[in-house]
Amino acid sequence: MSEKEEHDENVYDEEGQEELVDNDEISPEEEAFMRGYDEAG
């Protein structure tokens, strides 16, 4: 698995989402949306 693929997978786990918010790559609202989507699925 390449580094990019590994990074892409990490955006779907809780740690990856928190890291994206901390780095201002996604907003807290986007993180909440992703969390709600995961819980609904």
Number of domains: 1
Low-confidence stretches: none
Global Rg: 11 Å
Q: SSE string, helix = H, strand = E?
A: HHH
Distance between the termini: 26 Å
Largest sheet: none
Task: Assign an overall shape.
Answer: flat
The percent range for strand residues is under 5%
DSSP, total strands? 0
> Helical segment tally?
3
Structure in words:
With 41 residues, the protein is mainly α. It has one domain (3-40). The chain has 3 helices and no strands. The model has no long low-confidence stretch (mean pLDDT 80).
Which characteristics define this entry?
single chain; mainly alpha; 3 helices; 73% helix
Task: Provide a short characterization of the protein structure.
The chain has three helices and no strands.
Outline the secondary-structure elements.
Blueprint: H1 3-10, H2 14-22, H3 28-40
Helix pairs in contact: 2-3
